Amino acid sequence: MTQVALVTGAAQGLGLAIASRLFAAGYAVALTDLSLAAAQAAADRLDPSGERCLALRLDVSSKADFEAALQAVLARFGALHVAVNSAAMTLTTPVMQISPEEFDRVLSLNTRSIFVGCQVFGAHMAAAGYGRIVNMASLAGQNGGTATGAHYAASKGAIVTLTKVFAKELAASGVTVNAIAPGPIESPAVRAAVPAERMEGLLANIPVKRLGDADFLGDLVVQLARPEAYFTTGATWDVNGGLYMR
Ligand SMILES: NC(=O)c1ccc[n+]([C@@H]2O[C@H](COP(=O)([O-])OP(=O)(O)OC[C@H]3O[C@@H](n4cnc5c(N)ncnc54)[C@H](O)[C@@H]3O)[C@@H](O)[C@H]2O)c1
Ligand SMILES: CC(C)C1=CC=C(C(=O)O)[C@@H](O)[C@H]1O
Question: Which InterPro entries does the record match to this protein (predicted)?
Fold first, then answer.
């Protein structure tokens, strides 16, 4: 049976790279994003035949959208084995200038969405007796962030904790839950956040002196999604060029 994966925030950036590597590994993939048109364009590029890709609108701030997306995937592909919670917003407001409203907005989008995604997909996978969930955290959640805002860093730190909680809850049901904590990855978001004149300074600060590779993150997801990966759960996988060594 074809393995089936769903990725949130899959229209661009790391979510798209992850969806692409899952597709290359043979998965049927639901590419979901806030904009159906953007998700559809990405799905069309990946799989012009439309046989193994499905584009869906999934606003991760809506539990109803998660539930509807799950049902759409089951209707189309008959199963859901892998869910990747990648969508997030990255804000860089200095900590003393963040309003309570902006703080709530970032926590709600970045963290509550992971909580809801793990609940909705986790419940289905637990009932099916098998599943793999991967949550996108960040180096910022481990070291407090530098270029990114305090709300972003806090939202990503909470994802590491939520990943452990859901991993414990779902372990006996055959469902693993892991997180990936990237440092700066070659991506549109980093290029937008770091002007060319500041890139040299960023690279000088990274021990390996390079940005990370989004396709590698996709390949890491493919590995964590394998049935043989049953013994890693509740873990946070660091991919940060040595920026955070524990
Ligand atoms: N790029 C990096 O270097 C880096 C580093 C560490 C962690 N991350 C994490 O990786 C993930 C992807 O980052 P990226 O750099 O590709 O970001 P990005 O901004 O390029 O892509 C984010 C995607 O999420 C979508 N999205 C935004 N709000 C949404 C919503 N409410 N519902 C559904 N989709 C929504 C966007 O439309 C977009 O397609 C994020 O969780 C980010 O925090 C990225
Ligand atoms: C601002 C840029 C260098 C950057 C750093 C760290 C990230 C993270 O999530 O840890 C990125 O999202 C990214 O934009």
Answer: NAD(P)-bd_dom_sf, Sc_DH/Rdtase_CS, SDR_fam
Q: Is the CB of 24 under 6 A from ligand 2?
A: no
Kindly state the tokens that stand for 244.
Answer: 């955070």
152 is catalytic: yes
ipTM value of the model? 0.96
Q: Which of 20, 34, 65 gets mutated to test ligand 1 (max ligand atoms within 8 A of its CB)?
A: 34
Mind listing the pLDDT tens digit of every residue in the chain (246 residues)?
A: 899 999 999 999 999 999 999 999 999 999 999 999 999 999 999 999 999 999 999 999 999 999 999 999 999 999 999 999 999 999 989 999 999 999 999 999 999 999 999 999 999 999 999 999 999 999 999 999 877 799 999 999 999 999 999 999 999 999 999 999 999 999 999 999 899 999 999 999 999 999 999 999 999 999 999 999 999 999 999 999 999 886
Q: pTM of the entire structure?
A: 0.97
Supply the Cα-derived Rg of the chain in whole angstroms.
Answer: 17
Report whether 10 contacts 60 (CB < 8 A). Answer: no
Cα-to-centroid distance, 202 and ligand 1 (Å): 20
Ligand nearest to the CA of 142: 2
Q: How far is the CA of 86 from the centre of ligand 1 (A)?
A: 6
Please give the C-alpha separations between residue 44 and each of 57, 83, 88, 193, in angstroms, as whole numbers: 15, 20, 23, 28
